[in-house]
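Project outcomes to date are best conveyed with an example. Our students and postdoctoral researchers have been running inverse folding experiments weekly, and each run begins with a structure described purely in tokens. The record below, which covers 152 residues, was selected by the lab manager from last quarter's runs and is presented without edits.
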């Protein structure tokens, strides 16, 4: 089944609108996230950092980056075949490479590297936007999810 990019983007925007209010942590941290682009296996979003995203040192909090990796991995899986349920986390790894501060805009890119019958593997890159372009990389991560759907 081939689905055009506009349909994929609309699906992800609908999923975000429906799912964020049901998750207190996602709603708190990602209520202003905007889907920038979506294709099969890939989603790009943008978010302006507020005081809710910042640690005591003035930079993006590590737990915020980890939450973004969790969320974006799921959204990348949803682009694969327009699914609404993106599974449960099995493993998350995050590497912290640089930082961004309050008022900075970040780009989040989630890629579904493989979506199988039971497990999906994703990678996520979080970059600071400089002059509208993503650079430097703030954090990158991998996220493995159990995606097998129960048979009724």
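After processing, the design step wrote out the following sequence:
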């Amino acid at each position: 089944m081939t689905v055009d990019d506009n349909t994929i983007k609309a699906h992800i925007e609908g999923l975000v609108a429906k799912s964020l209010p049901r998750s207190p942590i996602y709603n708190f941290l990602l209520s202003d996230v905007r889907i920038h682009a979506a294709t099969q296996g890939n989603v790009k979003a943008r978010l302006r950092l507020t005081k809710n995203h910042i640690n005591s040192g003035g930079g993006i909090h590590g737990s915020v980056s980890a939450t973004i990796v969790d969320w974006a991995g799921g959204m990348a899986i949803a682009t694969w075949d327009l699914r609404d349920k993106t599974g449960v986390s099995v493993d998350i790894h995050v590497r912290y490479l640089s930082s961004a501060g309050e008022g900075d805009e970040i780009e989040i890119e989630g890629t579904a590297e493989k979506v199988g019958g039971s497990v999906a593997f994703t990678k996520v890159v979080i970059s600071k936007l400089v002059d509208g372009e993503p650079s430097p990389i703030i954090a990158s991560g991998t996220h493995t999810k159990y995606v097998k759907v129960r048979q009724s």
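Strands lie at 34-39, 42-48, 88-96, 105-115, 119-130, 133-146. Helices lie at 5-19, 24-30, 62-81. The training component of this project remains on track.
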